[in-house]
Amino acid sequence: MPRLVLLAVTAATWMLPLPATAQQICGTRAVVLDSLAKDYQEIPAAFGRSSNGMLIEVFAARHGQTWTILVTHPDGNSCILAAGDLWTPMPQKQRLSALGGAV
């Protein structure tokens, strides 16, 4: 059940328009990945594919200083959906418990 709630919130957030003053940062996937690695030392932390074929990835710096959520369209164009700091990976036991699995 918690996963369904998370998916619903994510889907609802995805459909919200950006504020008029916000600029979406997009580019070819290779250029965006290079920038995340060089400028922020971010590496892949998680990924998945959306129902409409987009690749959703989370990148994070090794010590959690920064994180970025990247969306890559099937045509190879990538856009930064969100970014922030203080990334904290969830321990596996806690992830399994949150999903209702055995620990």
The number of helical runs is 3
**How many β-strands, per DSSP?**
5
Major beta sheet, strand line-up: 1-5-4-3-2
CA radius of gyration is 15 Å
Helical percent range? 25-40%
The geometry reads as: flat
Secondary-structure content class: alpha+beta
Strand proportion: 25-35%
Uncertain residue segments: 1-21
Order of helices and strands: HEHEEEEH
Distance between the termini: 17 Å
Secondary-structure blueprint:
Layout: H1 2-15, E1 25-28, H2 29-40, E2 42-49, E3 55-61, E4 66-72, E5 77-85, H3 92-98
Antiparallel strand pairs: 1-5, 2-3, 3-4, 4-5
Task: Please sum up the structure shown.
The chain has 103 residues and is an alpha+beta fold. It is built from 3 helices and 5 strands.
Summary tags:
alpha+beta, flat, 103 residues, single chain
Structure description:
This protein has 103 residues and is α+β, with helices and mostly antiparallel strands. The protein has a domain at 24-88. Helices cover 32% and strands 34% of the residues. It contains 3 helices and 5 strands, in the order H-E-H-E-E-E-E-H. Strands 1-5-4-3-2 form a 5-stranded antiparallel sheet, with helices on one face. A hairpin with a 5-residue loop joins strand 2 (42-49) and strand 3 (55-61). The radius of gyration is 15 Å and the shape is flat. The two termini are 17 Å apart.
